[in-house]
Amino acid sequence: MAVYKIVEIGDEILKEKAKPVKTVNASINKLLNNLADTLYCAKGAGLAAPQIGVSKRVVVVDIGEGLHELINPEIISSSGQETDLEGCLSVPGIIGDVTRAAIVKIRYMDRHSKGKILTAGGMLARAVQHEIDHLEGILFVDRAVNIRKMKQKEK
Hints:
Oligomer: single chain
CATH class: Alpha Beta
Helix content: 10-25%
Strand content: 35-45%
Strand order of the largest sheet: 1-2-3-6-7
Distance between the termini: 27 Å
Number of strands: 8
């Protein structure tokens, strides 16, 4: 496994739409492992493949309840709205308030090519939406209001 350097705002890959995964193979499984290693090393809640310079529709999310690996994730339904504070490993030191769906239903493939559905609320819903945005070339600062530098106590 490997820990990758996280690509930061200003890099073109973060503004591009990531390419769909056609076949889940050893290379995609290795990417999932590397994303997880990088996520845990950076102490983040989620990480998308473009954030390590790979244009693939692959994300990992762990809000402290275990790792979710999502290949070609797609929001198929959503409800409600919640506004909360967000930051991003690719936009270090910056936070802002982002309004997102309160509950989302996501269709995706797992590392074994099985189609799955995830229904998520709360922090998990927010993290998954944030990472799916990365696959669309959208950064949280594109959606945020009240953008500001993180204070020492918020780090």
